[in-house]
Amino acid sequence: MSTYHHTTNTPRRLSRLRLAGAAVTALVLAATGTATQAMAAQNAPGKPGSATTTQPPVPALAWTDCQGGYECANADVPLDHRNPTGQKITLAVVRKKAADPAKRKGTLFMQPGGPGNSGVDFVRNNYDDLPAALRESFDVFGYDVRGVGRSSALTCFDDTRYSKAVTDAKGVPGRGAFGPALREAAEFNQACLDNAGSLLPYVGTEYVARDIDLLRRALGEEQLTYYGRSFGSYI
User: Fold this and answer.
1) Which pTM was predicted?
2) CATH assignment, 59-154+205-235
């Protein structure tokens, strides 16, 4: 697979995934999450990593220039962390190296909110606002989590259906909103199953946490200096 190269246009698929958390209502997220978790439990019983003690191989990061002083690479990690040497999923990663190598202390790992926001874009869009002391002494690193953006984006609604859902969500919550929200949640969940059902059992916070630990090892760090915003703080 060729190395990811950044473009300035954020994929529309990213917005569709954010729909569950931002555009419809928390009720939609709850209903969708519950159904997705039930499906994942049925198709992939047990927690990631629970079935084996075999350590997954550390991803090899082949960095290439991707404009603006940033470097980009792909990281291959296990699709199912319970089968660490089996099928892989590729994650898009980005970094900007410490501005003053003599002061370098390590890697600052930046994780956005969502779920569904691009970590690659998060680094690019926020790097200049970091304190100069951080930019001087840390490599600033981020990535698109599995199922998001450039990392096998999970698509549920298409653009037309997404736009309708956003319009329907205006004024929610309110009187009479419960029934329509449940129907929206059911339709969204079914669309996820129809369009990305094979990936859904392997998308979730526990997988993200294990991916991050593999990326830490790939970066050669004993520990990370970590900044998480919103959902990123939950991780």
Assistant:
1) 0.74
2) 3.40.50.1820
